[in-house]
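To: structure subgroup
Subject: Chain for Friday's discussion

All,

I'm putting the inputs and outputs inline so they're searchable in the archive.
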Amino acid sequence: MALMVPDSVPPKASQGEKRLYKTLHYELPDDCYVWYEPRVNGLYPDFIVLGPTLGLLILEVKGWSASQIIQADNQFFQIEQDSKTLSQPSPLRQAKSYQDALINKLKGYSVLTQDDGDYQGQLTFPVGVGAIMTNITEAEARDGNIYPLLEKPQVAYRDELLEWDGIDERALMKRLSNMFTVRFNFMPLSDDQIHTIRGIIHPEVGFRTETATLKSVPEGFHLKPNATIIKALDYKQEQLARALHSGHRLFCGVAGSGKTLILLSRAKSLASGLFNQKVLILCFNITLAAYLRSLIEGDSNPLYRERIEIIHFHKWAKSILGILPNPRFYDTDEDYDEDLGLRLLQALEQLPLELKWDAVLVDEAHTFSPSWFRCCTAALKDPENGDLTIVSDGSQSFYQRRQFSWKSVGVKAQGRTKKLNQNYRNTEEILSAAWSVVQPTNIEDEDVDDVTFPVIKPSAALRNGQRPMLHLLPNRQAEIEAAIAQIQTLIGEGFQPKDIAIIYRYKGQHEQASFDYLMEQLERLGFGSYWVNQDKSDYSTQHQGVRIVTAKSALGLEFKAVLIPWVQQFGVGDHPIRSQRELYVSMTRAQEVLHLFGSGGFDILKDLQQSERLDVVQRSA
């Protein structure tokens, strides 16, 4: 079965469109993508079909009957509808306009174009157009002199469409291939090429531009310098993002499940619509807010920057209240945050409707105080039915918050909760090592609807890689020296400094000398250093240098390689569960490589040493 976007045909679709949707869904092979009414450069073709060996085909579907066509030529059809005569573009002409707009966008990525020869700069795969006439038979078209304008095989008529029910996938693929007026042999499209095409067709699902590698293109393809690809949501994530509708919705997902990416995709979809919708994205983490802003600001669509506001909660509260309450007047941080929410709620209730938002999206909601969620609904133009999307992960919750129910804070979550347990970020080896740190004993029986921020067990990761390593050293300084040596190795293997992060829990007086040494050595070696916590509000993916960041500030971020010095820090303190979750967050930031460094006789190091999930390297004094 083909991968369909959206996953069901909308009720507004015509009967002919519904029949074609069903046929394409069930009769095409499972490596084909089919989009119904995607938005391409402000245009809405009926269907786009993409297959690694097919290429890209745009289909225009018309439900006109033969008797409705009063007059026609290659450019326009005069159609009688509701006692009126309407001038409509020829189906093939209309599809061709979509084709031209799409080809221009596709040619912007060199991984999709010929690199030399007579066809240099042209696409490496064919792009064709076709028309499906769902209410006219071929005989009726010939009798009415329509057929010369809409000839087979580029056009399929009703009698043929009916025969497609139950057609085998090879026959349907051959039939669609025959619709191309220009057809040539080409190497099957790679996964990265497919992702890039998907990101061009639906920009909302593209979340990052990366440098292309030899794995990004078919074998023998000459990769141009500075070639880039689009990393896009996977099919399930795209389905989920596009299936969202207005109303209150919750996503409870494991680390690396793409919660933030789905949230960003939803924001982009709302912002790029015809209506001037104001979208507010809230989070607790200053660094995460800056990171999300850098993703939006790096996108070419000006509507995103114009309509999407991304801000951390305290700064948002200050922008509404003018001044924040003084923390010294509160016994605990929890009391302060709760009262801040109550004050902000009063101010929001007085805010004029035109200053409120059409949609509010909350990332890392497990970090929020209960009263803050009432502020989120009050910020909506329509608090009861407005677009409120909340994503969370109980296993990453390490702030003290009061227990509450969604109903108690005005969030209508009943029957609107999605559970995401697929990890996309980490390798299986990293994920299993991280999960062993926080693994509860009773999560199998948890009901996601009965827990505000449930702890969800991740399913197996999609990739495999090298096992994480625990380095046991004589002292803190030796940990840093070993980490620097490992960074040198990683860069020698092709990693960029900005793809590497050093994540630590805190920097006390015992760590200061080692920390200074780390910064000095990274500069001396020419790798550069970027201490994120020095100015969390300025975090950007464009900054150069090895990232150095605390565990709490790393929440929501990801890096190809992660090194965690002073691991023993995660085993001290009055709240062991929160400490374990901080270590879990730190470990799950790593996409490919993970190294832990520790020293001393701490219990946490003994537990990690006994784990079957890490390779242990021990060096005595």
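Points worth raising on Friday:
The longest strand covers residues 590-599.
The first helix runs from residue 15 to 27.

D.
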